[in-house]
Amino acid sequence: MQAQIEAFYDAVTGTVSYVVYDAPQGHGAIIDPVLDYDPKSGRTTTGSADRILRFVESQRLRIDWLLETHAHADHLSAAQYLKAQCGGRIAIGARITAVQEVFREVFNIERGFLPDGSQFDHLFADGERFAIGALEAEVMYVPGHTPADVAYRIGDAVFVGDTLFMPDVGTARCDFPGGDAHELYRSIRKLLSLPPETRLYMCHDYPPEGERDPAWETTVAEQRERNIHVHDGVSEEEFVALRNARDQTLELPMLILPSVQVNIRAGQMPPAEDNGKRYLKIPINAL
Predict the structure, then answer these.
(1) How many angstroms separate the CA atoms of 217 and 202, rounded?
(2) Largest Cα–Cα distance in the chain?
(3) Residues 6 or more apart in contact with residue 204 via CB below 8 angstroms
């Protein structure tokens, strides 16, 4: 069965969120939703998530899943907000525990926080199968950007998370804690071994300035032919050298510090302190 897909592009973070569903008035999943965050004021708003809600309501969908491809470093997750509004189980790959372990130390997170993934409703194993109404879905473990990245194969479409970008942009960075360019290359080849006509949906797009509008859908065949970093013929060693050299030139994402603290908690904010307020930490010289 072919998945029905609606994309929501957030220009501030370059993130693409998705609603995937079997049919109008049927069942759906929301993938990688964005909670709007103003780093100047520390305020969150829900405009991006509300766009998704309006679509869900217009199609009269029952949301079964809120799917995260990984603990994002460029936006805060709106999974908790959407769960409260439309239901669904928040899920991520089981190796999120490795990411939680690293960042528990970076942020000196409160003792009550356990790096066991229990903040999420479900942890997916590699190859695990699940359903979205009449749609069959499969989890593909694709580490490299982080140790915990997964892609979701739903019907004839794959939501690749932070592995591939559009062919003229290339591939995801590997210089975050636990990242590994060798692993990313192997993950990408795993994705590109799927049938050539398979639809691939990106988690981000950063279009070359002035050259095109944002885009997020390609195919396996197009990526194998035209991806500037990892088209057919690029060896693992060539890719690793290119990726590592490029990563050394990149600044950290603007929202990495607030995002990771929230996203390893499944989109929950840190607990309130004794004055009733919640705080996000800024570690000095830690990254």
Answers:
(1) 6
(2) 59
(3) 13, 14, 15, 16, 74, 162, 165
Q: Which of 60, 54, 56, 51 is nearest to 15 (CA)?
A: 51
Do residues 87 and 53 touch, judged by C-beta distance below 8 A?
no
Whether the Cβ atoms of residue 63 and residue 53 lie closer than 8 Å to each other: no
State pTM to two decimals.
0.96
Cα distance between residue 22 and residue 133, in whole Å: 6
Contact 171, 18 (CB under 8 A): no
Q: Are the C-beta atoms of residues 20 and 216 closer than 8 Å to each other?
A: no
DSSP string across 216-232:
-EEEHHHHHHH-TTT-T
Q: Which residues pair with 122 in a beta bridge?
A: 91
Backbone angles phi, psi at 265, to 5 degrees: -100, 15
3-state secondary structure 249-287: CCCCCCCHHHHHHHHCCCCCCCCCCCCCCCCCCCCCCCC
Q: Which domains does the chain have, with CATH numbers?
A: 4-253 (3.60.15.10)
Q: Does residue 39 contact residue 222 with C-beta atoms inside 8 Å?
A: no
For residue 231, how many C-alpha atoms fall within 13 Å in the half-sphere facing its CB?
10
Interhelix angle 79-86/47-59, nearest 10 degrees: 30
Helix residue ranges per DSSP H, the chain: 47-59, 79-86, 96-106, 181-191, 220-226, 236-247, 256-263
3: Cα separation from own chain's centroid: 19
In this predicted model, what pLDDT tens digit does every residue of 242-284 receive, in sequence order? 999 999 999 999 999 999 999 999 999 999 999 999 999 999 9
